[in-house]
Amino acid sequence: MRWIVGVIFFFLTSFALYGKPLRIITVVEPPASYLDSHGQLTGFSVEVVQAIQRSLDDKTVIEVLPEARAIHIARTEPNVVLFSFSRTPKREDEFYWLGQLSAKAWSVYALSSNPVHIESLEQLRKVQAIGVVRGDIREEWLTEQGFGNLHPSVNHQQNIHRLRSGRLDLIAYESQGIQHLLWEEGLETTDVKSVYNLKSSDVYLLMSKSGTNPKLMQRWKTAAEKFRRSGQQQFIAEKWQMILKHYHNINTEAVEGILYFK
């Protein structure tokens, strides 16, 4: 009976301190976060976040949601931890930025058999159909640049299928993600090619801002900073650096716990 009272007291105390229960949300974005062949959530960023959770004795189950829904929840609900999302000027004041996880470059890809040649954003605007993921940073950025030829889907896997079927001319993604996706689909890395480099971004663990309890935010931020300074994040980054090179031939550099994709 006493343990039941203790559990009830814990939840009541947590609610009094922080209000709405904590949610931790990620998206399918390999190799940062994805489901393995057994349906288990894994990835470099997943391991970092789970380690931070252990340091906080936090048992919150990580949810996997579509990108558009995930970022909408983080923009509109309190006490939401979200990863891994790019930090941009537009997003700067929308969230609390808890700690950097990686840095990546964006490109536009075509089937290798496609003779398309792109040298500028202006040429890219003239392409008939560019696949993006709804809520993804590349959709957001290309929309800001005035692109009217974007064809959003729920995930990058759908975009690969639509590219191969001829419903898309190009897709906007990143080198490490495209290589991992091709591997999952049983395709060769030579089946697609990069035709234009867009830009690069820093990728973060973040927390919702509107209505979030500042004490909860500071608790997570302090834990994330302590974890990186301890060298444990660097250990995980170096582990994934080896995994990505050995299994997917993806080149990265691990510096102070941040995984830089080349």
UniProtKB/TrEMBL annotation:
Origin species: Rheinheimera tangshanensis
Pfam families documented for this protein: SBP_bac_3 (PF00497)
Matches recorded under SUPFAM superfamilies: Periplasmic binding protein-like II
Xref: InterPro entries: Solute-binding_3/MltF_N
Domain spans labelled Solute-binding protein family 3/N-terminal: 25-240
UniProt name for this protein: ABC transporter substrate-binding protein
Domain of life according to the entry: Bacteria
